[in-house]
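Second attempt. The first submission of Phosphate transport system permease protein had a stray character pasted in from the spreadsheet, which I only caught after the job came back as garbage. Lesson logged: always re-copy from the clean sequence file. Corrected sequence (283 aa) follows.
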Amino acid sequence: MKHFKENGAKIVFILAACISILAVALICIFLFANGIPGMTKIGVLKFLTGRVWKPGNNIYGIFPMILGSIYVTAGALVIGVPTGIITAVFISKFASVRIAKVMKQAVSLLAGIPSVVYGFYGLIVVVPLIRDIFGVSGTSMLSASIILGIMILPTIISISEPAFNAVPKPYYEGALALGATHERAVFRVILPAAKSGVTASVVLGVGRAIGEAMAVMMVAGNQARMPKGILQGIRTLTSNIVMEMGYAADLHREALIATAVVLFVFILIINMLFSVLKRRTRV
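This time the job returned cleanly.
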């Protein structure tokens, strides 16, 4: 009976693993089978470097959206990375047990908030604030960067904080023995020692930011043109797909799936970077 149960459990685990792998494989096949032909019809170079996106005239250039995604992600990192790392340091090395517990619960709650709620917050709070301060429309690259910067905080904090905790105690004690203060030991010894884990958190934060669609679409202005400034509207790759897929047909639809292929390649590169960093951390 025991042997039967063990074999049954083994089969269930293998089936679950196969389903997961099959789901990823099917998504890859769908994307590349439907996206590559469209990209080829348009012209790969023309599609990737074209500066005009006008589906009505059969012109499909996604370079403005590629730049939009990169700029918004970079802005989110500028806002989210320092805030997230400092928060993780505080939870790990400065906060009392009680405060650390409360902050961890708050971070978990932040991670569970739906994207549309972040977008709604941006639309009601951030966009009017930027409009009042700078005298512009408010829906802009800056608004999207601020919202994404908040959205990547849980990823950065939840991965960086265990990395700080994992640094061997002799590192900290050795720094104190040499006369360093608590603050100096944390920022000059613990932080550099945990750099692999911190870098991994940033890489995953990039993946989170570049793949976000709903919140960005609500605050970025969604203008399919070359980015002209931090206070001007932009469109990202994800927003482009979400906004037009509902009514797209023929080559337009294929161009949107090809856009998803480009996004998929970005995410693949980010995951590969994360795997490399994880391997280096183990070493």
